[in-house]
Structures are given as structure tokens and as C-alpha cells.
Write a structure and sequence with these properties.
heterodimer, A: alpha/beta, 13 helices, 7% strand, B: mainly alpha
Chain lengths: 424, 120
Amino acid sequence: ADICNIPGIKEICDIINRAFNSHLPAEDLDKDGFSTIKTFRGSSWRGKDCNDLDSRHHPGARPINGDVLTDSNCNGISGLDSETGLPYEDLLCNGTEPRGMILLGDSIGAHFHLPPQWFEAKSLNPSVFKDLLFILENEIDWPELSAATGHMNNTFGEVIKGPVDSIYMRLRERNRCNHRDYQNIGVNGGRSGSMNSTIVRSLVRNRMSDYPALVNIEVVGNDVCNGHPDTLSHMTKPDEFRKNMLDTLQYLDGVLPAGSHVWLTGLANGSLLYDNVHDRIYPLGSLRNDITYTDFYSYMNCLEISPCAGWLTDNSTLRYLTTKRAFELSDVLKNITATSEYKNFDLVYLDIGIDEVIAEWEANGGEGWQLIEPVDGFHINQQANALAAAHFWKQLEKEYPDLMGKVNPNNDRIKELFGDQGGY
Amino acid sequence: ANGGTNCAACAVLVGLVEQLAQVYNEDAVKALDRFCSFLPDQLQAPCRAGAKIFAPYIAEAIYNKETPDVVCHAIGFCKVDPGHQACHLFPVPKGGMEAALRRTQPMYQEVKKMRQQHGY
């Protein structure tokens, strides 16, 4: 018997399914892909809808009639300049090359984080569970603080610590007309196959009526990560990976506005996870110092629930072979970038660069384990997300400055006139 | 295998309850209630409903110095599938896992009967 077939429960199940399976907002009256609530794939994930009764009004839209009467693209800029008689959108945004930031990816992109306080008896108290429902409704991800689409100050300091920096925040700083134009379509467990079948299809962009976008496709581990004991035989093969990615890119060419940019991120070197934490104490063992990450990894492998049996293991040969396959898949991405052309976007490739981020952190006196998620031992933490954003930005600035668009000379005027532009 | 995520969730929860009991110097029934009281209002009732069923067994096993892994076998969330070894997150109990699982067989049978009676 399926509990979701019970009348009354069915409607609730439909809402949850829509959000969790299609990666679209559960509450979205005009069905434009943007929502007024934060969770269930709402404004934590995509810019907040400023008019949920009109699908033409959403973040990233080109302004309708100069947004004289309404703020159709929700960037907080609307109205008429009394001196010139021109719409502010025309005056302050025209010719500044606005663009949105869209992430298509996995749990690294969505920023998976389980609070370590939940696993430490001494830290347990009502305040660490205060945001439990919010956290569950956001699939235990923190897109609002992520490297790609982070957009707010960290007000969750009790359960997630560290600074916030993101590509979106920097794009917005560069051009305040980009306000609210972000989409985080990161999905826990996302890999090239699900990218092509569902994730990319949850992207919302109208080729004709929306601005171009900077799209980052990042599936940095799950094609080589699984929990099977014979993990190697369940990894994606290079030819299959190539086909998935080419199909994804072809789909994108059909939906992205002309002038967009797509940036592919290479797979991670997950060996660094074990290298940095294996002999450290796991949060649940903090009271008696009796559980290490190696114990935790072995336990997950024993139950066959490890997110990555190939990297989260004390078997160095297996870790090596997993990294080898990851590098082979990254080579596929480099090859696609070098050999493919698309009508509506240009394509670039960047390494994920976590190794460099850790090396830089260590050069400044830090230690590698301080950048790894304490509970799962598989993701990068808040501090590393912020550092990764800065690292990527530096790389883009150096190698592909066109992707970032112009600096809007009207930023100060926008701040003066429109303040925080409606916030988030 | 061996109970998968249900087993892991049980081991973490029982481990926390056992540690809370030590931190606050109280028995496991009170520690489990303390844990439920930390949760948001909407989740306290389901937490207490689960606690009502399993707390006596958890408390007895913890009182007998069984590890959280062994407790979770005893209350049926973890198992040993054919061809597998028993999994453990916490240090192996004195005398080994197999001996501990044999020791808690009566409790396992009792919980199994209780689960069947309640249709779990």
C-alpha cells in the first residue's frame, strides 16, 4: 500500500515529489519556476519571484516596457527617472550585459552539510535543532551559502560556520542589474546520467525573453562514486560519460538565450578526503575519542551505504583507481570543450581546483581537514566553499574575462536609488 | 546490506542517547526523552512515540553495557545478512560482536514478538 494514494495525503506527496524529483519549486502559482517561499526548491535555490501570479515576471527576465510600472525581472530596479524621462532599467542596465548564474550539478554544488553538533552529545541542545525542518525541506543542502549561488550572510552560525562568497555574489557586485538572477540546480547524488535525464531539464530560461546566463555544469564525483562493494564496475565509463554530457549540452543549446556561456568543471581528486581526515576523530566519537573517520568509512562500506566506496576507504589501490577514472572523465570534458561548438553559448573547461584551494589554505597556516565536511567526510565545508568561489573567480578573471560581463558604471547610482533592491 | 541506512540511523541515535546519559548522569530512558525535547515542536510527538516503544529495551541493553551497535541488532534495526560480517561503528564489545549478539538474542526475540504484535 502506498501512503501517497490516500486522499488528502496525495496532494502533500505531489508537492514533495514535484520539489524533490523534478527539482522545481513546490509552491509556484504561475508555474514560471520561481517561488515566493524559501524551501522546497524556492528562493534558497532560485531568485525569489516578485510576482507569483504572472509567469512573465521572474528573475532573469528582460524588462517589460522598461519596467516602468512593475519590476518584471525582480532585480529591484523599476520606475522612471524624472530628470531624463527614461525608465531606470534603460538608464542603469541597458548595455551592461546582465547575466544570471546557473549551477547544474551535484551535492557539492548544492552544498550538502549536516551540522556536526547533531552528532556530538555535548553540543546537543534545542537551538542546534531550531532550523531542522528548514534544513530537511532544503534536502540538507545550503544553496544560499554555496560557492555558486550563495547570496546571503551566514545567519545560521550555530550549525554552519564560515564566510560566504560566491560567483553569483561577485557577478551581482560587478553589475547590480543581476540582482536575484541565480538558479542552483544542484542535486544530491547528481551524475552525468541524471544530469541529462532530469537536472538540466529543470533549468528555467526563456531563450527569447530572458537574459543570457553563465551556466556551470559540475558533476565532480558521483560518476565514480557509489556504495557497491564492487564499486569499480559501477562507475560511468568514458564513452557513456561523453554521450551524457554531449546530450546535456545539446539540450542547453536549445534553451539558453544567445550569448550565454557554459563552464564545465572537471571531476575532483577525492583521494584528498581520506588523506586529510582518516586518522582524525569523527564527531560521534568526540566524547571518548573512540571513532576515527577510517572507522566511519569502514562502517558505511560494511552497510553498503557509502556515498563513495572508491575514495572513502583505507584501500589505497582502490582510491588510486577511482582517481584514475575521475581523471579519465575530466579528460572527456576537456576533449568536448576543445572539439564542440554551440550556437547559443561558448564552452570553457576549468579544473575543480580543490587541491589548489587546500594547498593555499595550508600555505597560510591552515590544515586540510579544516576544509572538509565533518559529518560525511565527503564534501567541502562552508569555509572551502567561500575559498573555492574566490579561486574560480580568479581563474575566470585570468582566463575567460568575457564570461563575467562588464562592470556596471551605474552600480553606485543603483545602490543610492534602490538600496538592497528588495533583498532576497 | 546488514540493515543499511536504518541500521546506521539507529546506531547514531542510540550512540547519542548513551552519551547523553553519561553527560547528564541519567538513565537512557531520561536521556532519550531529553533528546526528543531538543527537537522542534512538530517532531517531538513522533520522537516520543518511537521512544515509548523502544526506550525500555534500549535502556536495559545500555544498562548491561552493550554497545550501540549491539543494541541496534537487539531491537532489530541491524542484522547480519548471509555472507556478511556484523558491522560496527563503535569499538567492538569485549568478547567480540558475535558473543554480544548471542547474549542479546532473548531481547531480540522479545522485540521481534512485540513488533509482530503491533504490526511493525
